[in-house]
Amino acid sequence: RPFHVEPTNIVSVNDDVQRVTDEASAMNKRIHYYSRLTSPADKALIAPDHVLPAPDEIYVYSPLGTAFKVDSCADGCGKNSSIVTIFMIWNTMMGTSILSIPWGIKQAGFTSGIILILLMGILTLYCCYRVVKSRKTIPLIDTSNWEFPDVCKYYFGSFGQWSSLLFSMVSLVGAMVVYWVLMSNFLFNTGKFIYNFVHDINVTDIVPGTNGSYKVICPSDAGSHSPQNSSVMFSSGNNTDFELFEKWWNKSQTVPFYLIAVLLPLLSLKSPSFFAKFNVLGTVSVVYLVFLVTVKAAHLGIHLEYNWFTENEFFVPEFRVLFPQLTGILTLAFFIHNCVITLLQNNKNQENNVRDLSIAYFLVGLTYMYVGVIIFMSFPSPPLSKECIEQNFLDNFPSDDIMSFVARIFLLFQMMTVYPLLGYLARVQLLRQFFGNAYPSVVHVLILNVAIVGAGVAMARFYPNIGSIIRYSGATCGLAFVFLYPSLIYVISLHRAGQLTWPALIIHIFIILLGLANLIAQFLL
């Protein structure tokens, strides 16, 4: 006997089946993505709980930022709204570069610095847009689980694979070195503040500075005195104990080694997933830094004098030949190109990807601009010169400054929780390529960790210049992921489709040359 089903019911059943199939496909993609990041024996990034959401909620995770829950409707289950996507991108890009932006503006000149932040933001945004579109240039292959290094491997073979690994390691290890230098700095100043407070010791740094409640110092103008431990005690306490403390609590000679006892064991953990719970501190730290900058500027006032090309005792020219030092920092400050595809593929409305990416870049640039410009404008010149702005602008505030003390505490704890995550990512990328396992043995992991920690200790001991380290690593990894590969892949795809024009070719060759010039200039200036 024939079985009759109403056509409307067929459509309804098909819709339900299609919806369930889509949700299952999306779930498999997420599981596959996390599985590709680590070895099967390591459970740190294999289908964590927040990748298997309840039907009415989803947890989103930003590796360098925060984890939070988003409610979603049935039609968009498992997808993020535009506001969440924008926040994730902003949260991921905001990092330690913000501490060096004021120094970069000083190196470039005030007017030149503002222009460069705008231009570098636009240029890196365009290259990031090319990265997002790169997967669509590959025909007849399912690229839904691919990130940009996979696209590089498709176009350039083993060279693309290994070069992507090399430049990715440069960015990771460079960030870990900067973190070690900063953690040594913050731990030193925090310990000094606590010791002086507990022992009721009043000290003053032997460095030039302003007077008053909102003191600003110039460590780089300390002459023959080392800014690390140069201080004079004014209390009648035990001078011997104070001198002994300063001997064993030195920013460059002892404190970087003390961190080894805490961080080296943490790097050796098989799973660093516990530390991801504290990444919300990254957002808190950035918000607090913006607050600190605002309060300091309100009390210090504005100190500007326009000298377009000449330098005087207290001010720098508006345009300086050292401007590539800022572009090197900004290359890393706007760097998100190796993971932007993953962040955008969970956007609920894919047609808004370009808009959301542009808004996120605008907010990142606005944050950098605000902090950099406000610190530069409010820096008290005279009596101090603008040349006194440090590569870490917190160094321009003495260790007994309460607001700076709180900022250092936040940043120290946040960096100590992010550092094992960066080490884990470096281990996964490097050891899996060579040994097929993210944790081949304790010896392999220990050798890698000792090498990474040793690089950080050496830099904190002999070259604690975070601005320079950031610009070197930023210009190096940026040459590949920001300027070279996105432009080459776009030109190759246009050529294969028979759509390559001379203007497009010239423009993208010019972008590549800009990236190459940016890298070369870091070693010449």
Characteristic terms for this protein:
525 residues; mainly alpha; Amino acid/polyamine transporter I; two-stranded antiparallel sheet; 15 helices; disordered N terminus
Furnish the topology, listing elements before pairings:
Elements: H1 7-36, E1 57-61, E2 67-71, H2 82-93, H3 101-108, H4 110-134, H5 148-198, E3 203-205, E4 231-233, H6 239-248, H7 255-267, H8 280-300, H9 324-333, H10 340-345, H11 353-378, H12 402-435, H13 442-462, H14 466-496, H15 502-524
Helix pairs in contact: 2-11, 3-4, 3-9, 3-11, 4-9, 4-11, 4-14, 5-12, 5-13, 5-14, 7-13, 8-11, 8-12, 9-14, 9-15, 14-15
Tell me about this structure.
The protein is mainly alpha-helical. The protein folds into 2 domains: 22-69, no CATH class; 82-219 and 256-524, Up-down Bundle (Amino acid/polyamine transporter I), CATH 1.20.1740. It has 15 helices and 4 strands. It has helices at 7-36, 82-93, 101-108, 110-134, 148-198, 239-248, 255-267, 280-300, 324-333, 340-345, 353-378, 402-435, 442-462, 466-496, 502-524; strands at residues 57-61, 67-71, 203-205, 231-233. The strands form 2 sheets. The chain has a two-stranded antiparallel ribbon. A two-stranded antiparallel ribbon has the order 3-4. A hairpin with a 5-residue loop joins strand 1 and strand 2 (67-71). Helix 3 packs antiparallel against helix 9 (324-333), helix 8 runs parallel beside helix 11 (353-378) and helix 9 (324-333) crosses helix 15. It is globular. The protein starts with 6 loop residues before the first helix and ends with a helix. The model is unreliable at 1-17, 23-78, 223-230 and 232-236 (pLDDT under 50). InterPro entries: AA_transpt_TM (IPR013057). It is found in: Late endosome membrane; Lysosome membrane. Residues 81-192, 252-521 form the Amino acid transporter transmembrane domain. Its main location: membrane. Belongs to the amino acid/polyamine transporter 2 family. SLC38A9 subfamily.
